[in-house]
Amino acid sequence: MYTIGTPFLWITFSMLSVVMIVSEIILQKTRIFIKKPLKASILFSLLWLFVVFLFSIILWFSVKKNVNFNIANIKILSFFSSYFLEQFLSIDNVLIWFLLFRHFSIPTIYHRKVLVYGLFGATIFRITIIFFGNWFLYKHNWILYVFGIIVLYTGIKMVFLKNTNTVILPKNRWIIWIYKILRITAKLKKDKFFLWENGVFFFTPLFIVSILVELSDIVFAIDGISAVFSITTDPFIIITSNLLSIFNLRSMYSLLSFLKTDIDFIKYGIGFVLIFIGFKILVGKFLYISEYFYMIIIGVFLILIIFLNVFYIIKRTFFKKTHY
User: Fold this and answer.
1) Residues 167, 96: contact at Cβ < 8 Å?
2) Which of 40, 111, 220, 252 makes an SS bond possible with 93, Cβ 3.0 to 4.6 Å?
3) 3-state SS, residue 90
4) Closest CA to 231 of 305, 164, 137
5) d(Cα 42, Cα 277) in Å, to the nearest integer?
6) What is the pLDDT of residues 9-54, one digit of tens each?
């Protein structure tokens, strides 16, 4: 099971992650996301991007020193492709969070707490599934074709089917099931997850939302991890790109809650990328595509989507039409 992850790279990644997560927890307690939510979300998103680029520079120099220049370039392309692909695929997950908070009438002041706590569960789950998936792929190479089918289907669904991820929350089976097995209070009790009333133990709606946020992370992780496995099988690249992506997802939620941008065109762009990735996997034995060319195509598509997204946000935010 080949990987470019050296002890130095693992320690560096772990230290950067711990520092950023602790910083986010401390900032949450200072309530900066409540007092200046938009400013805090933008600054923290930019800070996470800085950490990603800083780590990528360390990664490139380390691989160049330990292996060679060409492998370093391929690994960096794999890292950024995996990172941004996971970011865009997670947008639907963020939209589900919006729906959950709105359905359960959770005040904005508590959103960040739920998402930060959910981060720990998402991290453990993703590391587990990545290591298991990598081990299984090492033992049974045919599983890569299963990933290819999942990725191709997801891409076709995003391009050709509308509203494929719409969730009618009041009738959602997870919510119905949770309410059947747990004793839940009708209203929130500040930021408490549990409480005792008249000697009886209750869960609060805040706890239920945190569970559903965790479940949505698990569901959407399947598509994302399958797509990343289709780009690279190096466990270090998969884990670092995936975790850095979900770490920033919490700040992305706060930012998108202000922008409320129409993301249909992003879905179409990512859908075409996934179709290309799935097609490459399924016909890889019959049609050779060099790794450089493969990564460059994915990178160009993702960069184009990023620029279109930024342009659309700027246009919508600063050049709104005035109606008289």
Assistant:
1) yes
2) 220
3) coil
4) 137
5) 31
6) 999 998 888 887 787 777 666 666 666 666 777 777 788 888 889 9
